[in-house]
Write a structure and sequence with these properties.
It contains 13 helices and 22 strands. The chain is of the alpha/beta class and 451 residues long. It is globular and about 65 Å long. The two termini are 27 Å apart.
């Protein structure tokens, strides 16, 4: 596909990195000459320096008739206008980043008239993920398949968890709730486990579950945590606004600390059910004074990764039940486990995953059958939802008889209204949705899982 990225900030570069080498005709546009030239040297892309909302610039870049235009500049207005121009220039699909909450509702209502296929909001999407982590305190991460009916969740095998010391075979015999363990991260390595794999304390476990059965499973393995009620948030960004607004609707008690007086006053005005404190949330004395020890959850959302890491470590020291940390830079990810930082969110990765899933869905119309895609464990693992839409030799054979590629697992089968957590005797049928977890990259068809 011909894909044009307008705006080469963190999200634009993350998407470019993810799509590079996948056979797409990639074009980049940005007003920063150094960014464009640097990325042309690094990746197999063409690019133009200039305003991506200008028709002449889009024509110069060769964007005419593009399959997809992705507008990700820092200006909402410019992104929307760039999509309008792209449609005029024959683009088939457009994605715009719109961050301002004042615009979002009206643009969502008008997006079809504006010719915008998809609107992304990194701050709102990140806030939604944090909300889910608070709402399900035992979960480190949760991804949704089959319109929310199936979850792929990450948990940690903490002390007292009855998974520890068990193999997948023994767990299959003991567990009443049906789940499938798909991947295990131990340190920096990741494994697609077989039946003899032994779970150890500290393992980060990825499993698929029927959404309705998840709480039963967590209770069965002693991982149910008491509901979180008192939440402390440090930072005053748009993510904070979206998150605090949603939490306050659900009657959580929220204390928000922001260092900029004008921002703090604006948040206090916009969030009447939230206690807003003007102060430096990275000062340990202030956190103690504001009662961090009595908090059930602590969320670090400043614009500086290192500050978020330091205050999270302090919150962990104060025995806060759940801490969540925003990390924007990939270079810090490797040290998080060693520092005891478990629950992290990355706005650029959340949005990049949404956009890449959309691109796979576009490819679906051309023959690929990927419906949903998530990247896990620092991009070491892909979880894909396929639609079994065309006849194939993989159907109607027990999974145990199929020769699957190494490090590849059929994690769930959705058949009409039935969610099947499969064993070796289950079969894939025409019309099923099938979730596959693998360390291989670039699967485009369900038959790619076969040797």
């Amino acid at each position: 596909m011909k894909i044009v990225i307008i705006g080469l900030g963190t999200i634009g570069k993350t998407i470019l990195k993810s799509l590079s080498g996948k056979g797409h005709n990639m074009i980049i546009i940005d007003e920063d000459k150094n960014k464009v030239e640097g990325l042309i040297e690094r990746y197999d892309v063409s690019g133009v320096v200039g305003n991506g909302a200008c028709l002449d610039i889009q024509k110069e870049a060769g964007a005419k008739g593009a399959d997809l235009i992705i507008a990700l500049t820092n200006s909402d207005e410019l992104n929307v206008f760039a999509c309008l121009v792209a449609k005029k220039n024959g683009a088939k699909n457009t994605i715009a980043r719109v961050r301002n909450p004042d615009y979002r509702k009206q643009i969502m209502e008008m997006k079809d008239e504006l010719g915008i296929s998809m609107i992304v909001n990194p701050e709102q999407d990140t806030a939604a993920e944090i909300f889910n982590l608070i709402n399900l305190p035992s979960i480190v991460q949760a991804e949704h398949f089959a319109k929310g009916r199936v979850l792929l969740v990450e948990i940690v095998a903490e002390a007292g968890c009855s998974l520890i010391g068990e193999t997948l075979i023994t767990l299959g015999k003991k567990l009443k709730t049906k789940v499938l363990i798909c991947a295990v991260q131990r340190g920096q390595s990741v494994t697609i486990p077989t039946g003899n794999f032994l779970i150890e304390e500290g393992d980060r476990i990825y499993l698929t579950s029927d959404a309705k059965s998840l709480r039963d499973f967590l209770a069965e393995v002693n991982l149910v945590k008491s509901p979180l009620k008192n939440i402390m948030i440090v930072g005053g960004s748009r993510i904070v606004y979206y998150l605090a607004n949603e939490l306050s609707k659900k009657k959580y008690k929220i204390k928000l600390i922001e260092s900029n007086l004008a921002v703090a006053e604006a948040l206090a005005s916009e969030l009447p059910r939230v206690t807003v404190i003007h102060g430096n949330g990275t000062r340990h004395e202030l956190l103690i004074e504001e009662g961090i020890e009595a908090m059930d959850a602590f969320v670090a959302l400043t614009d500086i990764d290192e500050e978020n890491m330091v205050v999270t470590m302090f919150a962990n020291k104060m025995k806060v039940k759940k801490t969540i940390t925003q990390i924007k830079g990939d270079d810090l990810v490797g040290m998080l486990d060693e520092l005891g930082i478990e629950n992290t969110v990355s706005p650029q990765n959340i949005v990049a995953n949404r956009i890449i899933s959309y691109i796979r869905a576009l490819a679906n119309k051309r023959g690929s059958n990927v419906l949903t895609l998530y990247r896990l464990v620092n991009d070491q693992v892909e979880a894909l939802e396929f639609y079994a839409k065309k006849p194939a030799r993989i159907y109607n054979k027990p999974l145990k008889e199929l020769k699957l590629k190494e490090n590849c697992l059929v994690a769930c089968i959705i058949r009409e209204n039935e969610v099947i957590i499969p064993n070796g005797n289950d079969c894939i049928q025409l019309g099923d949705n099938v979730i596959v977890v693998t360390t291989h990259k670039n699967f485009d068809d369900l038959t790619d899982i076969l040797e």
